[in-house]
Fold this protein.
Amino acid sequence: MELIFDAGVMDIFVIRTAGNLCGANEIGSIEYGLAHVKTPVFVMLGHTQCGAVTAATHVAEGMGHPLERNIQPLVEQILPAVKKAKENRPDMQGESIVPLATEENMWRGIERLLRESPTVRGLVKQGKTKVLAAVYDVGTGKVHWLPERRVDAILEKVEASASEATEGSANHAEGSREP
């Protein structure tokens, strides 16, 4: 990542995960980078030829092979993005759907991040943090930036949802003790 953006160590706060998935560990790391390190921009950076999305596509199309025990849950989390990409473009299948599924998976990750992190939502709404999405082309080395308006739409959707998390700190959790 540092090489892609010509940055030094800790000039950017990097979190890598197969398939750009956002679980509790990743979201906690993102919150740390944005709220404590004060990183002003969060970039969900996918890449072409993503192996995790390709594996999920193969599984969705019945062409998968037995996956390692801990890769299976990763692939299962990506399957909804593959299915959504296929719904949006029923004329596409196989390897041709992977780039669309990669983008859809990134949007799902951003939505989960904004839904499950009141801290990140607050930083975005206050203008202290910007959330962006991009795809790195492993063949050319170029970064293709995706529309910012999609992030805005996701934020609006999450804000309108009654089921989103609302407490920003663990100290508010039921049964927790104040330090």
User: Anything to note?
Assistant: The longest strand covers residues 41-47.
